[in-house]
């Protein structure tokens, strides 16, 4: 029996983008207001899971041809690179740096090396969650 | 150029090897590798003239300053001698390997990478003045030796030998580390030079004897002394260039180096002298005796190496005697240290050439079994000449260098009669006698090696290949070494002045101010004295016994295998392996639910016990926030959902109810104004419900039936225990503030120092960034684990074995 999931699919097409935008917002907002790489990553993953539930795994794989294992590895590399970059400035491992800049369009913005580390966390969380779900989901 | 960087040159060169092998495969990779040891040898040789005068070089590279750990390259007579051996023999061995290992069939990139790592490690061992980095390099030699022995990793024996050498030498290395730590506690420094300076005070310390024994365990395992020598014969599974290099000329001499280097620290002790001299001498006679039992050419050489290492070790033990005698520089006791270093050089030359010949025979005839060989003299004349020179030198015959150092060895052993401490006045006579017996067997196995291979009847039908002389390239290195064997006999004092005396001055710094003060002159003829008559006795008895070898060699078969040290090792390995297996099978059921029961019960047990022991139970209902309607409603929903899980008949209901529990908790977070936690909890719940649904298919069959879970008293108890523990902890934590809350610190610093606003996130990425880093690493590992479990399901295939 084939269920009719037109409503789910139609809604998903819109909702996914809302979730993704929200995830990006949450990710960048993390340093001052609730949010951060971990939640942002989970939200992104949940958006992709929603897509997979509404459509099916092969279709989503075609739309998003991402190797999540590589994504995890990239995330880990970014995280460790951010942490070790401080060595080259002759400060202990994992020392973060930040400053305030006047950027066009954004106005005064704070740029923080913790954000780079958080990108690593974000990628690892997305990568691992999707790896697990995809692997289990594809297995028959 | 800074000396300390030179140590790392081989390891840096190793980085380019895979590239050279892949891109320039038509040129044998060995040619590029050859440049490294050859260049280093030439460079270090330029330091000889000043070291000869007693000069030293120090170069330091700070590594972990907060722990006072640094790479310190210290070049004096002793370390320069070893450095030249490592680079010199290294260059010859690489040259030999170019012709030994086929560039098309062998995995040269692996081989040379390991070899270069070893070279760096070995240079590090002999040049480090810092005990911790010395230990580091020491273990690196064990690891690279492991990799090289297992180079032909598809062979069962190779892997066995590699593991055996690793187990034994790493065991010794760890013991040695303990000794080093004790030394640094006693002396307050990691520097060997500074420890030597305060040697007399160290000897009074309670830890002294422990440090001594532990350090010696390291040296004895590495230098294959009794009873740890058993790894060396099994290490002969390595390609022959490796055996010639690591297992005869360099790595096994690391233990000798360590003993020589630390002699000034420990020599004041009676235990040191007895242990080093006694174990060394016993190893010498034991291994020379059992060398004759071997049927494999490399097996004979392995036992002979063990025996020769024992000889050098015993000489170093005797050298310690000079520390106890006033004016030892004028007595015969001065000979021991000189003889040790001199023999070390000689051994490297003749044993290196013999190993290479064994490799050539293996290469050109296809076998190393001495029973199948014979009569190769006319077929391989050059190899025969080299083997003859090497063997006769090893046997102690003139005109070869072995004769000189063997004579001096006997002199040193006889010199003990001048020494009357440590009850040596009674026992000293044992030393020359045992040395003499060992020398007789050395004489016999040397002849056995060369004549049973090259003389006698040729048996072409026994050989897998048509025997013929080796290609010229393969012969260069052994011929060069053999030439050295002869040359050193005629110019011993040149070698003595350039190489031996600076090293002796480093071993006995209290005796000599500079290498020139070492007043020893080597001569082939020194009149009719006891040593000469002992040597003549060795030739006579040894010759006679060799003549009748075939009549009594079968007596070795009477020695039962069941009581050998190898058997002991095997039994120990089996016992530890099987024992660990049996033990873990008791509690590893394979069900996650059992593991959860262990974890939860231990957690509540430990926490409750700690609370009880510290009398930390305290319940104080002051200061509590009022309970609102929302909280009550949510809690009721929480409890209701939990009870639904327990009572549900289908797993699907349970999963949904579990989700409800999670969402209720998230709502509680919202009410308590913890938006970060609430947000995370909500998303996690969503994803884990989705995951549960996905995994639904894979859950065990039994529970797919519609039935209620049985009541299990044990599980109920554990659940109750966890609940009680958490409640008590929460209440007690709230009721007493033993220390001020850390949140104040976060509040103060989060903006000023960390430049953030959201404490939770700043904790994650900054304050406790290390935790997060490791957590995401663990996440990654978990992901890989799930892939391996599901996608690459390990199915047992028939007829698949690692041994091809």
Give the CA-CA distance, first to last residue of chain B. Answer: 48 Å
Order of helices and strands of chain A: HHHHEEH
Structural class of chain B: mainly alpha
As laid out across the biggest beta sheet of chain A, the strand order is 1-2
Oligomer type: heterodimer
Instruction: Report the strand count of chain B.
Output: 2
Shape of chain A: flat
Query: What's the arrangement of strands in the largest beta sheet of chain B?
Result: 1-2
Largest sheet of chain B: 2 strands, antiparallel
Protein topology:
The complex is a heterodimer of chains A (140) and B (804).
Chain A: H1 6-29, H2 37-54, H3 57-63, H4 68-85, E1 98-103, E2 107-112, H5 113-138
Antiparallel strand pairs in A: 1-2
Helix pairs in contact in A: 1-2, 2-5, 4-5
Chain B: H1 3-6, H2 9-14, H3 17-23, H4 29-45, H5 48-52, E1 57-64, E2 69-75, H6 77-100, H7 108-127, H8 131-149, H9 156-187, H10 192-197, H11 199-202, H12 208-222, H13 231-234, H14 240-249, H15 254-266, H16 270-291, H17 297-319, H18 335-365, H19 381-395, H20 401-414, H21 424-427, H22 430-454, H23 472-490, H24 492-507, H25 530-547, H26 549-552, H27 565-587, H28 592-613, H29 629-647, H30 651-671, H31 675-695, H32 713-735, H33 743-752, H34 759-767, H35 769-790
Antiparallel strand pairs in B: 1-2
Helix pairs in contact in B: 3-7, 4-6, 4-7, 6-7, 6-14, 6-18, 6-23, 6-24, 7-8, 8-9, 9-12, 12-15, 12-16, 14-18, 15-17, 16-17, 16-22, 17-18, 17-22, 18-19, 18-20, 18-23, 18-24, 19-22, 19-23, 20-22, 20-23, 20-25, 22-25, 28-32, 29-30, 30-31, 34-35
Domain MrpA C-terminal/MbhE (chain B): 712-791
Domain NADH:quinone oxidoreductase/Mrp antiporter transmembrane (chain B): 128-424
Membrane topology (chain B): Multi-pass membrane protein
Walkthrough of the structure:
Chain B: Its main location: membrane. Chain B: It holds the Pfam family Proton_antipo_N. Chain B: Belongs to the CPA3 antiporters (TC 2.A.63) subunit A family. The complex is a heterodimer of chains A (about 140) and B (about 800). Chain A contains five helices and two strands; from the N terminus they run ααααββα. Chain A has about 140 residues and is mainly alpha-helical. Chain A has one domain (about 5-140). In chain A, α1 packs antiparallel against α2 (about 35-55). The two termini of chain B are about 50 Å apart. Chain B has 35 helices and two strands. Among the domains of chain B are: about 265-545; about 745-804, no CATH class. Chain B is about 70% helix and about 0% strand. Mean pLDDT of chain B is about 90; it is low at about 795-800. In chain B, strands 1-2 form a two-stranded antiparallel sheet. At the A-B interface, α2, α4 and α5 of A face α31, α34 and α35 of B.
